[in-house]
Queue: 4 jobs
Job 1
Amino acid sequence: MWEKPFAQIVVRPQRYTRGYVDHSDAFTLCAFPEKYAGDLTIMGTISGRDGDKLSQTNFTPRPSTVVAPPSYNEACLILECRTMYRQDMDPAGFVDQSTHEIYKEKDYHRIYYGEILKAFVNE
Ligand SMILES: Cc1cc2nc3c(=O)[nH]c(=O)nc-3n(C[C@H](O)[C@H](O)[C@H](O)COP(=O)(O)O)c2cc1C
């Protein structure tokens, strides 16, 4: 995108994560081996607003190399990204009308484009 390698994330307004992403100019994106599926379910169902969910997982944070947000030692792929663009999803753009059903509360995702500054693969 814009002649840069990029990755895209989407974050709903009610996520605790949202404040961190909006108050930063960077984010990290991690992929994990299959054996961490249970840990990802914890991260993806409990809110950090309600307590320290990380301590309920096997994940250990590690500093990034060129951005402030950290990533995780257990990730098999880490992308360190600099935020280039963000915009709330516009429901007028839903070509598939059934998508409206997903947003009954009108809590449309905010879309973030990140320039991938560094990528790491853990074997
Ligand atoms: C597999 C999976 C993928 C998810 N992807 C997203 C996503 O892309 N954007 C989002 O806003 N929430 C996503 N969620 C939901 C959040 O991870 C979940 O609401 C989480 O508890 C939010 O935590 P937080 O409040 O600490 O940010 C996902 C959940 C799962 C299980």
Job 2
Amino acid sequence: MKNLFKLFAMFIVFSSVAFAQEDEGEETEIKEITIIHAGTLLAVAGNDPVQEKSIIIEDGKIKSVKDGYIDNDGTEDAEFTIIDMSDKFVMAGMMDMHVHLASGSGNSADYAIKGVINSYKTLMAGFTTVRDLGASDDTIFKLRKAINDGDVIGPRIYAAGNIIGVGGRTNGKECNGIESCRKTTRDMIRGGADWIKIYSSCSGSQLCSNEDGSPMFFDDEITAITEVAKKYNIKVAAHSHPRDSALQVLKYGVKSIEHGSFINEDAMDTMIADDVYYVPTVSVMDMLEEVVEKGEVSEEMLIHDQSFLDNNPPKIFEAYKRGVKIATGTDAGVVPHGKNYREVERFVELGIPNSDALKMTTVNAADLLDKSDEIGTIEVGKKADIIAIDGNPLETIEDIRNVVFVMKEGTVYKD
Ligand SMILES: [Zn+2]
């Protein structure tokens, strides 16, 4: 008993020493502050760039932006890390609003491996945030968590999970009649979906995906999906190629039209009035051009693909001139991952000015996600998602291929 008391007394002594050390540690807590010296800074895409600025970063967020190159911002008890980007073009991390990181052929194990590889490629290309619009199972939600936890290197993910369709599509979640549409939508949201993705027309690789193609859902089915999503404050993205499927879904409050290959002026005007985004996935034209050039598909398919090539690019430029809000989305998964810059390049090829194309992959994407208060620009209080580029994409858009530095939420992933 006496020995036991002795042990207890020793424990008390040891633990009070530990506390004292901890207390001492707290008194001299060192703040870690990173300062990026930005030669050219495009703080807000769409505005003019500025020269020779210091971006001060603490706790993953932008603390301040100061004139000239400073080595400390006057904070006491702080350790400063200086990152010299004085000969670089610095801007906010880019965003891709239409990717499929963890899907395709195979099973869950394949999706997981592909997901890890594709996430890495995407972040290294300077894309710090993505919206994943369609996966084959729940792997994408687990990938999202692994990235958030810091176990996997990749962009911040907003994920839809499985696409909701009318059935028959592999791994698609079914919506057939009001009850099943409600149930499936609730299931997806409970399972972790940040967005709901619906298949309101057939796939672009099918002949039924033409200008006069029929919408897939009945009105009450679309209503069921959008009403459930609204209850949970979740937004709906609608895959749509034919003219009428866009017109249909726009009646029920979707937030974005994906592809929108044959949207007409009525659809565009509704999108402007209702603040609906257009994510035209024009990068897919890279693939279609290759298909048509090789000519290894049926005559019918060649005509089909050619109609997309002839129609879509001018349609996107028309929507831009009309004032439809556009965000970049490549459909990576259909086209290669890590080449997400192609969408921005394609926009410029259409005639959209470089500064607006860069806005579509930063400011507009944040707005589409309803995260403008957190990401999309280099401003005080925003998450420190910052990239540096060799060259000047405001002059030569292809320079966005030369991403030499990537920071996501204050952590450097590429330097
Ligand atoms: Zn897609």
Job 3
Amino acid sequence: MTSSVYIHIPFCNHICSYCNFPKFFYNKEIVLKYLKSLKQEILNKYQGEILKTLYIGGGTPSSLDIEELQELFAILKIFKFNKNYEFTIEVNPENLTFEKLKLFFENGVNRISMGVESSKNKNLEYLGRHHDFNLVKKKIKMIKKIGINNINVDLIYALKKQSLEDLKNDLINFLSLDVSHISTYSLEIYPHTILGIKKEQAILEDLDFCMYDLIRKTLTKNGYLHYEISNFAKKGYEAKHNLVYWNNDYYYGFGLGAAGYLNNIRYNNTTSLKNYLNGNYLETEERLSQNDILSYALILGFRKIAGLNKKDFFKKYQVNIKDLYNVKDLLKQGLLKENNTNIYISYDRIYVENSILINFVGE
Ligand code: SF4
């Protein structure tokens, strides 16, 4: 049963130095064509299921102007929603206006995810972002004032020349925003990005670990629940949409470069704007074998700090989780832990999670 939708809006007002997402410079003429094609893609695929989560990401959805956003919300009327659905939209501080926010609120948006990244101008410049922290504070206030209290902010760390003291300041400033959710990302430098072309290097792994540790200690000490390797939420504010991914559940992905998972098929849309505008949406699709499905279930599920519920796992896949791969050995070695209900990665091994998850790739 599918009850989630991701929609990609691939337009931005500027291109950040680290950006590895499918995106293009905002252009009004192209946006209107894009929305037309998006509508057709949704009409072709959507089967009328009742949705529990809708996530509009990018790119920068808030780079669209009021008229385009109105058109986007008109398209969303195709969907049917559950009464308490979670509706998230990504925004950047510099192009989020009161008028746009009002439109979001009136159209059912109840969760905002803002690309804040850092509170220091030096870092923001390095990342190629076009805002400062004063603007962030103003916009977060505006969001709360309009009545949206479920707010995520993204934090990027592990930047060149960033010290632990710098990160500590960032964390203090982020905490002062008093938002319900914080997503953290260790900066990765991809070859085709501006930072990659400039041959910038990632920081040393030891420092990266110390930063990760500082983040989790600081945020958990200040009332946030560490519920996924990189995500922290106040109680009850875990991202329902992202949990769909980590729970290996089905979801539609619409838009350029979007990924989806339906009826045991994982698919990726084209990243070519020309193809997308011509209605050639799909780039790849792969029907998963039973082994692939189980592999995804473990790799995604163990990203959650609580891990996987043994009973639910059996109910969903008709297999005992302990009989899969080398789960029993990993339990013996203490890399995986177990309580009455769940199996999870030992908290002191979360940082090296990938080296554990590699055990569950293929069979
Ligand atoms: S705003 Fe987001 S999607 Fe756009 S360039 Fe920056 S990081 Fe990439």
Job 4
Amino acid sequence: MPTEIAQATLCGPCAFDGVGLHTGAGCAIEVRPAGIDAGITFVLDGHLRVPALAEYIVDTSRATVIGRDGVSVSTVEHLLSALFAMGVSNADIHVRGPEIPVLDGSGRPFVEAIECAGILEQARARPLLVITQPLVVARGEQLVIALPSERFRVRFVADFPAPIGVQFFDGEIAAQEYARQIAPARTFGYLHEVEALRTRGLALGGSLENALVFTQDGPMQPLRWQNEVVRHKVLDLLGDLSLLGLWPLAEIVAIKSGHELHARAVRALRQRFLADLAPGSHVRG
Ligand SMILES: [Zn+2]
């Protein structure tokens, strides 16, 4: 039997405000404690509750967007990644504005606020997703594989045009390692791409304060690690995997993947899980 991990929430609320990366609009959020088995829920327009689950993904083209009934919130992946990996399984996220604020482009401000608010363990085990059969989703050269494993670990291979090139990450996902090795990795982009996005009305909140920008010659700012890009890809992947609503006992192998393929993998894993819970079906242990 796998080791049980307790559910957890925050000891008190924490709040953030700033611009949204894509809209450039001012956005404010407050993350509040929630009870056992509540899960993570977005509260939009003051009342519309949207669970942070794969079924509520409405767009993955530039960021992961969650919504229902025509109301949505964009760029949820960094905040969700931080809550998920730091072990916060129950919380309400009250959102004002169209996006989660980008802050410094990484998960670090969220991790620091979570640590500052404090994490409260709750008296029930966190639901686990035990993988017994490999799952493979692919699109072109992109691949995501979920393999049975006694621990949650991630291997990621990123391969971007020069000067980024091929980068690799391999590690177990645990709170302290995440806080030190993954959360500080920033959103990144190419200068020429940023200009193209702006003309399409995207990346309007992007700046050298919240994104690592590469030119042909290299990064415009000092890197936090030589492989900061793949560490950020892991940060994004964890945000998308949080939409399982479960802690996966799996090894996730991701090759050149992005939000769209992550969403497909998470939907497929949840469908399997929900099918296993259906009456009369075999429940894997
Ligand atoms: Zn990101």
